[in-house]
Amino acid sequence: MSTTLTEGLQSIVGSAHVVTDPGVLDGRSVDYTGRYRGRASALVRPGTPDEVAAVLRECRAAGVCVTIQGGRTSLVAGTVPERDDVLLSTERLTEVGEVDVSERRVRVGSGVTLADLQRAAAAAGLLFGVDLTARDSATVGGMASTNAGGLRTVRYGNMGEQVIGLDVALPDGSVVHRHSQVRADNTGYDLASLFIGAEGTLGVITGLDVRLHPIPKHRVTAVCGFTTLDDLVGAGRALRDTDAIAALEMIDGRAAALAAKHLSVPVPVEGDWLLLIELAGDSDLTERLADALDGTELADEPAVGIDANAQQRLWQVRESTADVVGLFGPPLKFDVSLPLSAIPSFAADSAALVAEHAPEAVPVLFGHIGEGNLHLNVLRCGTEQERHLYAAMMKLIAAHGGNVSSEHGIGSRKRAYLGMSREPADIAAMRAIKAAFDPTGYVNPAVLFD
Predict the structure, then answer these.
(1) Residues 302 and 361 in one domain
(2) Of 40-49, 313-322, 433-442, where does mean pLDDT reach its minimum?
(3) Which residue numbers delimit the FAD-binding PCMH-type domain (predicted)?
(4) Would you state the pLDDT for residue 326?
């Protein structure tokens, strides 16, 4: 990076927030899984939306690419630079506004972590509708950029349903403030929605107004075991439309067994496949849970948690999968969306495909069964094996009527497979929008498109 650009960036954010140390840049140029690595020329940490915009103007004038980084929890190499990029981090944009309890909303900086947002909401007697196991690292801006879903999607929806206003620094260095105090606002283009799921290709989200929700007075949580995936899917199909449903999570019995062995998280029921169910509402839902499970083909009596401690123990069975999949080195991750009817056949076919290309690898399948949003993690899969397995798995996903990405986005890892889930006309339209906002293509240039 030129001295002129370095000095220009330092004049905007201060010399302490422009980092060119090779060791720091190397650590910032690897993805969350540790499988994908790139290269960067500098790390810049602006502290205000205006500084973000000024950094973009400076980099654009210098002809230098910019890769945006939040909590760097992307699982598709969405924050990995490829062209000696300047890394623009939102980590200092951490202001949390006062919670508007009557309107149930709050304005936050894009660098606020999910955990901090959850704490602010809880302190006001409310909750935020999206939850992830990476809550301590994932930032709200990054979650909006990928339209993240997570553990409560079956009840509250993805990030797109939570965002009611945005501040965005555009590639030309201008700033859009799209906010409204009214719930019904039909005054032209829905600009905020354009940036949800755009993966930072159209600009840098610097702040958000997000919707909050009342905290249910009662919860009941259960983990059920199933002998077959067909039985679990049948139960999930029946439960997902229950008006009190709060969570519906599928857990591979192999992952639960590994968690019991290596993390001392006990498996509460027998079964090759487990289903975590949570109901929430204003009255005791224990009987409703029993009615919902009546007639379901269970492998064992369900484990039910009524008080908070018991519920937390059951949730550990699901959340421990995030730690389990990293026990044998960086896992190969596939984030897919499938029709519920296709999940059993995909589970069998994907396991066979893994055995064919990586005989020593262990496939682990889990995720948000209510939406058919699943995470296939392949443990003990080497780089050489990945080269052949990845493309074959993408084809298998498409053959089962699925999408190659559900909530993690395309990033750079899946950009070659975008055409499996989008028609040529769709991609052309997206490219036209990208060109309108960023004619030189310098913002997140490695993301989404080849």
Answers:
(1) no
(2) 313-322
(3) 36-215
(4) 83
Is there a single domain that holds both residue 245 and residue 318?
Answer: yes
CATH number of 367's domain: 3.30.70.2740
- The per-residue pLDDT for 331 is 86
Say if residue 319 is in the same domain as residue 337: no
C-alpha 307/C-alpha 305 separation (Å) is 6
CB burial of residue 275 (10 Å; 0-12, 13-18, 19+) = buried
Q: Does 162 lie in the same domain as 135?
A: yes
For 328-364, give the DSSP string. TSSPEEEEEE--GGGHHHHHHHHHHHHHHH-TT-EEE
Tokens representing residue 53 in the block: 């915009």
36 part of a folded domain = no
Check residues 36 and 219 and name the one with the higher pLDDT: 219
CATH number, domain of 157, equals 3.30.465.10
Do the domain assignments include residue 61? no
Q: Which residue has the tokens 């029993």?
A: 290
Average pLDDT over residues 87-100: 97
Q: What is the predicted pLDDT for the residue at 441?
A: 95
Q: Which DSSP helix (H) or strand (E) runs through 76?
A: none
Q: Is the Cβ–Cβ distance between 71 and 137 less than 8 Å? A: yes
Number of independent structural domains in the chain: 3
Quote the pTM value: 0.91
Residue 425 makes CB contacts below 8 A (sequence gap 6+) with none
Residues with Cβ within 8 Å of residue 182, at least 6 apart in sequence? none
Q: What is the pLDDT of residue 296?
A: 87
CA 275 – CA 445 distance, rounded (Å): 40
Please check whether residue 65 is in contact with residue 86, taking contact to mean a CB–CB distance below 8 angstroms. Answer: yes
Task: Assess whether 201 and 231 both reside in one domain.
Answer: no
* Position 47 pLDDT exceeds 90: yes
